[in-house]
Amino acid sequence: LKNQNLKTVRAYNVKLSLQEFWDSKNRKEAAQYLKKWYFWATHSRLTPITEAANTVKKHWDGILNYFDSKINNGILEGINSIVQLQKRNARGSKNVQYFINMIYSKLGELKFELPI
Predict the structure, then answer these.
(1) pLDDT per residue as tens digits for the range 6-39
(2) CA distance linking residue 113 with residue 116, whole number of Å
(3) How far apart are CA 116 and CA 19, in angstroms?
(4) pLDDT for 59-115, tens place per residue?
(5) 30 and which of 16, 24, 41, 43 could share a cystine (Cβ 3.0–4.6 Å)?
(6) In a 3-state reduction of DSSP, which class is residue 114?
(7) How many CA atoms lie within 13 A of 65 on its CB side?
(8) C-alpha–C-alpha distance, residues 18 and 69, integer Å
(9) Are 44 and 17 in contact (CB under 8 A)?
(10) How many beta carbons lie within 10 A of that of residue 115, not counting itself?
(11) Is the pLDDT of residue 1 over 60?
């Protein structure tokens, strides 16, 4: 497949190389890697990859800030997915307080066991 120069193979290789970016040891090394990746992605002649590279360029400093703080938004994304699930479960309920209570219950992992 690699020798057939398929667009999907090229796109997959660009994607894999971006994943290796997160293995960088510090901000300087990460910036150098990202600069090379950006050049490769923008010259790939693959429109979706070029668009993704331009999105990375818009958030360049924020992405590199990870190497200073090692903080990401994974926890917030997890909380958001729980809230969205509870929102779907509360569909049809006219009581907003019920929806809020469902969110607190799920996020607080409250156990409502009956005494036996």
Answers:
(1) 888 889 999 999 999 999 999 999 999 999 999 9
(2) 9
(3) 52
(4) 999 999 999 988 888 888 888 898 898 888 878 777 888 888 888 888 777 666 766
(5) 24
(6) coil
(7) 8
(8) 20
(9) no
(10) 3
(11) no
**Tokens linked to 101:** 């209570």
Polymer length of the chain? 116
Q: What is the pLDDT of residues 45-62, one digit of tens each?
A: 999 999 999 999 999 999
What are the structure tokens assigned to 20, written together?
């290796």
- Give 4's DSSP letter: G
How many alpha carbons lie under 13 Å from residue 80 in its C-beta half-sphere?
5
Count the neighbouring beta carbons within 10 Å of the beta carbon of residue 86: 18
Sorted by where each begins, the domain ranges of the chain are: 2-69, 74-107
pTM of the model: 0.64
Q: Side chain identity at 80, as an amino acid letter?
A: N
